[in-house]
Amino acid sequence: MEKVVVAMSGGIDSAVTAYLFIKEKRAVEGVFFILFDEPPNIELAKKTADFLRIKLHIEDLREDFKRYVINPFFERYKKGLTPNPCILCNKYIKFPALKKIADKVSANFFATGHYARVLKKNDKCFLLKGIDKKKDQSYFLYGINRLFLNQLLLPLGEYTKQQVKEIAQQAQIPSKVAEESAEVCFLKDKRYYEILKPASYGPIIEASTGKIIGQHRGIHLFTIGQRKRLGISSPYPLYVVKIEPAINAVYVDSKEKAFMKEFYVNQLNWLVEPETNSFTCDVKIRYAMNPEKAFVIIIDKDRVRVTFDEPQFAPTPGQSAVFYNDEVVLGGGIITETVQGF
Question: Where are the active-site residues found (predicted)?
Answer without folding.
Answer: 89 (nucleophile), 185 (cysteine persulfide intermediate)
